Amino acid sequence: MSTEAPPVVASRAALEELLDLVARGELTRLPALVGEMHPSDIADLLASVPSEDQRLEVLKALPTEVASETLAEMEEDEDRAELLTELGARRGAALLQELADDDAADLLGELDPGDRDRMLAALPSEEAGEIRELLRYGEETAGGLMTTSLVSVSTTATAAEAIAEIREKGREVEEFYTVFVVGRRGLLEGTVPLDDLILADPGDPVQSLVVPVPATVLPDTDQEEVGRVMGRYNLVNIPVVNDEGSLLGRITFDDVIDVIEAETTEDILRLAGVSDEEELKGGWVDSVRSRLPWLVLNLVTAGVAASVILKFEEVISQLTFLAFLMPVIAALGGNTGTQALAVTIRRIAVGDELPGGRFQVVGKEVLVGLLNGLVLGVVFALFAYVYVPEDGLRIGVVVLLAMWANIVVAGFAGALIPTVLKRLGADPAVASSVFVHTLTDLVGFIMVLSLARGLLF
Hints:
MgtE N-terminal fold; three-stranded mixed β-sheet; mainly alpha; 67% helix
């Protein structure tokens, strides 16, 4: 049984103690308070300090390594760029030197150009050059995620030479899991498992131990695709290569976890008609600005659906019980469409296609709608038959057919609309739900009222 102590995490008591130290100006005791904490928990504490000046004092009081990791763990909206700038070029550069080059590039990318240049000028020229190279790439691309810090050996090396090189390079590389093998001009040839390398005879050529890499990505590959590829092949890191196949860097799984969380949050917000993460972390003005355009669009489309009722005013005036039936049929159609929409967008997002392609998903949802619509239609028809004894049989038929048709159409629309939007190059998560719900409302109202006019008059 392990006797290792559990990690210390941020707590309300720790926050109160930190605020007390800040208020009394006794920050020399801060290292003792946070000594066993993970930088992520320290970042949570720091973000809870109300004043930016106080946060700056806390950051200055932390040891350099702890301060750098804490700053890297903070969210972008927690003013970490402002804190880094306020620390000054010399202290800021000292913190950046403690970080992996990709984390340092992420931080510097948030600074104003002038502050960024001053910070880079304070760094050693070699490190500054590596970070400048990473800053060339877009934030949401493989190049923006990758680190150039890796361990590689030459195809011409022997096992003994490779081990010696790994020992030398490994001291400078944070958490390397893979040894890459490169040939002339830095071309990626594959990887070499450490256990094979250790068990090989010292004179064995590395070339004989090379294992092909299952996948690589280009520096301009979208970060969502990077996460998809790494998940597909269960990779702990993935090499980034240029068009010629030369090794540029690697992306580690911890960075991809952050990407998956960010992309999942973005997809959920878009599916709900919210355009960005300001909704989660911004104020009420940001929420209004984010939601209102989609609500206005929804108002217009709902008005179109409601206008159908005016066309059948004489039917509703004579058959008032339809006012009870229509919302139920429309609601079930909307829920069915939402289910199909969620499944389809998820398939599109993760690249999980059926053997017959994306349009097989449409066929599947139609079949599901046929069966679910039949069952729900029969159940609701029996309910309507009992609830409205006069002309109960014909009313039951109206309800059955309307419910059945609406659920089939809802499944069809929920699968087809995002598929078509994706084919057209649009984001299916943004606009699909508005159109699916409008369509199901229209079909539900039209089917009930048309069938009622045809069968009950």
